[in-house]
Amino acid sequence: MAASQLQNPLKTPSSQLSIKKHKPCFLKPRRLTVSAAHPHLNGRKLRVAVIGGGPAGSSAAEALASGGIETFLFERSPSTAKPCGGAIPLCMVDEFSIPHHLIDRHVTKMKIISPSNLTVDFGSKSLRAHESIPMLRREVLDAFLRTRAESAGAQLIPSLVTHLEIPASSLSPYIIHHTVNNSRKTLAVDVIVGADGANSKVAKFIKAGNYTCAIAFQERIRLPDEKMEYYQNLAEMYVGNDVSPDFYAWVFPKCDHVAVGTGTVCGKQDIKMYQRGIKQRVKNKIKGGKVIKVEAHPIPEHPRPVRVRGRVALVGDAAGYVTKCSGEGIYFAAKSGRMCGEGIVRASEGGEWMISEDDLKREYLMEWDKKYVSTFRFLDLLQRVFYGSNEAREALVEVCGSEYVQRMTFDSYLYKKLAKGDRWEDLKMVFGTFGSLMRCKIVGRDMAAFNLQLFHE
């Protein structure tokens, strides 16, 4: 289709509207679906714009294009990448066909270090022989996923979206105003997928509501060879008020450097102080290292009040799909994008029919909530129980010394589902957790809620 045609508002002539008839049967009455609500798009395919080219947007665009939808993928800065620890769950490698050469490190050892520097080796005994935590760089992963979306048929538009015109009717198009090389352009589409991060413009245009944001700050540090050898297959997590009042700090290995960073909700204005805190904790391990990049980025702390409005759906960080406790978002971004894209394909029957808000809610939002809402609630409880004070963090590290706790944690993290364990071991874990918290004088309502959910999952 010529480019000039794409700049014009979409039109569906009334002559193209039809009525779908279903043959009558004795078990159910004859149904008529009035095409004015869901018109058949004769002569063209459903047009969808995906705004944001990270894991969420690229996965959505790939699913849409593969399903026969005319797909446009907007990405403001293809050469840049969001600051990110870069850990992905093992299941993502196969589920999203991530080539192994993109993975910098296969972490098989983790250390979690308490405020008093109590250290627990997490994984050396509890990981199975074939298991690891893949670590990669976002700029590498994002570029790969965008290229794959293009190969599936999505049109990549390196452009800044400046404004959205919201249609006055259910059949009118959305008009996307954007700039390409300082030139203003417009594009008319039927559906929009907002995948433009925590500060989503799409969310603002559809009045999706606000949410609390954390801030992640990290430095990439190139270490001397002998120091880098220590982090060959090791990742470290540090907890304590000195590194974050409500989250954790990390040292994650990359291809030829480590990412040293922290995150917080409560003390965002003090993020550089917490960064100095983690660097102080690991100063002997990173001595002689050279900072090669400094990065910071907002991270949503809970889903937005509205994730679908009209023919617009939010995915990834724009929707608020980052887990509490771990701060993980890469997998959930890619998964939500793919689920949304596939939902649009199903609702439109491969791009043949117009879709509605109800279609997006049924085929995407309800499916997402059914699959993941319990996971997000459980991790929210964990954060409230264990991240509120240094005493609670000491208890957390102590609890993590249990091989059963470690195995359950890895089963849940690596395969992205709440692990179902042995009831007797679960009971022992609960009593062990209570014991640790009582020693730290921290038993309360959040802990009771945590135990209730544990036994109901």
TrEMBL record:
Coiled-coil ranges from the UniProt annotation: none
Gene Ontology cellular component list: chloroplast thylakoid membrane
EC numbers on record: 1.3.1.83
Cross-referenced Pfam families: FAD_binding_3, GGR_cat
Cross-referenced InterPro entries: BchP_ChlP_pln/prok, FAD-bd, FAD/NAD-bd_sf, Geranylgeranyl_Rdtase_fam, Geranylgeranyl_Rdtase_pln/cyn, Geranylgeranyl_reductase, GGR_cat
Keywords, comma-separated and alphabetical: Chlorophyll biosynthesis, NADP, Oxidoreductase, Photosynthesis
Similarity comment: family membership: Belongs to the geranylgeranyl reductase family. ChlP subfamily.
Protein name per Swiss-Prot or TrEMBL: Geranylgeranyl diphosphate reductase, chloroplastic
Organism: Gossypium darwinii
Taxon lineage: Eukaryota, Viridiplantae, Streptophyta, Embryophyta, Tracheophyta
